[in-house]
Amino acid sequence: MPVNLAAPDPARLFPVAGLELGTARAAIRKPNRRDVLLVRLAEGASVVGVFTRNRFCAAPVQVCREHLAAGAGVRALVVNTGNANAGTGESGLANARRTCEAAGALLGVPAAAVLPFSTGVILEPLPVERLVAGLPAARDDLRADRWAEAAEAIMTTDTLPKAASRRVVVDGRAATVTGISKGAGMIRPNMATMLGFVATDARVPQALLARWVREAADASFNRITIDGDTSTNDSFVLIATGAGEAAVADDGSTGAAALRGAIVEVARELAQAIVRDGEGATKFISIVVERAGTPAEAAAVAYAIAHSPLVKTAFFASDPNLGRILAAVGYAGIDDLDQTLIDLYLDEVHVATRGGRHPSYREEDGQRVMKQREITVRVVLNRGDASTTVWTCDLSHDYVSINADYRS
C-alpha cells in the first residue's frame, strides 16, 4: 500500500498548451491495459533530457541521445511499458528507430524528431509489431487533457499513477507546469528505472532549459533511492512548448525564478511519489544530513544510511536498533570523521550525542517514531555548512516477493 499517496485527480492536472497526449492498449506484455503513450508537441518546442548513467543503457536511451544531439527539434515522444528494450543489441536499436519512423509517419514529422522511451523487462526483444500497431489508436486519442491516462500508461510495478501540476505567474502572464513519472524499484541516484516527463507552456531557450533540467533532477529524482540499483532506461525529459503567453530569456528575467521553482516542485513531487510507491514500501523516510564539510560528504552519509539493508529492515519492523544508523554514518567514507561531534535525531527525539547515547533518550520514544508512516532521520555532523536531503523507504517482505515474481 503506498505511503500517503493517492491517484492524481485528473481535474487538477492542467493542460499544457502546445502538447497533446494519447494512449493505447497494445498488449506489449499484458492484455487490456494502457501500455503505449504518444505525445505530440507544437513546432518550436524546446526539449532537453537527462538519462541513466548505467553504461549498459537501453536502446531507446541511445536513440534519444542521438536525436537530441542532432538538434533538429523534437515533435513527438513515444513511450511503451512492459518491455525495456534493454540488453537487446542491434535489433533493439533497430526496433527503437522503427518506432520513431512509425510515429513520425503518423504525425507527419521526421523520425529524428521523435524520442522513444521504454520501460519493463530487460533482455527480452521488444514486440515492435504490437507497439507500431498500437500507435494509430494513440494518435486518434490525442488530447490536451490526457495527463492522468498518460501517467497510467507508463506504469510497471507502480501501484498508482503519478502526476503533478502547478500554475504560476511569469512577468504578469500565466504559465502551466504539468508532469508525470513512473517508478517503484531499481531506484537510485543518477536516475533509476524511472521515467519522468515535465512540460511547461512557457517559452524557454534551449540552453537555459538544459541547465534547469539538471538542476531539477538534482533536487528531485537524483535525491531518491529505493534499493540502490541504477537501471538501464532512466530518463527525465523537460519540455517548454512556447505555446503559452509567458516567456523567459535567462535566469534574470522577471518570473524566471517562479517558473524554475514550479518545475522543481513538480519534479520533486513526482520523485517523492516514486518513493511513496516503492516496491513493498510501508514507510516514507527523509534522511537529512546537516553541517557536513562539503555537499559530497553530506550526500555520502545520507546514501550510506538510505542504502543500508539493516537500517531499512529496522524501519520496516519499527525496531529502534539505531546503532545501525550510526554505523552507516561511520562507513560513509569520511576518513577524518570525529564521532564525538555527531548528533542523531529521529524526528524530534535526540538519540545520540558526543559519540554515544543521549542521556535523555528512551527506547520507547524511538519506537514511537519508528511506528509512524513518515519519519525524518537527521544527522548533524558539525563539520561545516553543507547539507542535503535524500528520500527513501523501508525494505519489506513484499519487496522480495515483487522482485522474485516480476517475470512470472
State the share of residues found in helices, binned by percent.
Answer: 25-40%
Give the beta-strand count.
Answer: 15
Number of helices: 11
The percent range for strand residues is 15-25%
Layout of helices and strands:
Blueprint: E1 19-24, E2 36-41, E3 46-51, H1 59-70, E4 76-83, H2 89-107, E5 114-121, H3 128-140, H4 147-153, E6 162-170, E7 173-182, E8 195-200, H5 206-218, E9 235-240, H6 256-276, E10 284-292, H7 295-307, H8 309-317, H9 323-330, E11 343-346, E12 349-353, E13 356-357, H10 363-370, E14 374-380, E15 386-393, H11 397-404
Parallel strand pairs: 4-5, 8-9, 10-14
Antiparallel strand pairs: 1-2, 2-4, 3-9, 6-7, 7-8, 10-15, 11-12, 11-14, 12-13
Helix pairs in contact: 1-2, 2-3, 5-6, 7-9
Structure in a nutshell:
The protein has about 400 residues and is an alpha+beta fold.
Describe the structure.
With 408 residues, the chain is α+β, with helices and mostly antiparallel strands. Helix content is 32%, strand content 25%. The protein is built from eleven helices and 15 strands. The strands form three sheets. It has a six-stranded mixed β-sheet. A five-stranded mixed β-sheet has the order 3-9-8-7-6, with helices on both faces. It has a four-stranded mixed β-sheet with strand order 1-2-4-5, with helices on both faces. Helix 5 runs parallel beside helix 6 (256-276). Mean pLDDT is 93; it is low at 186-192.
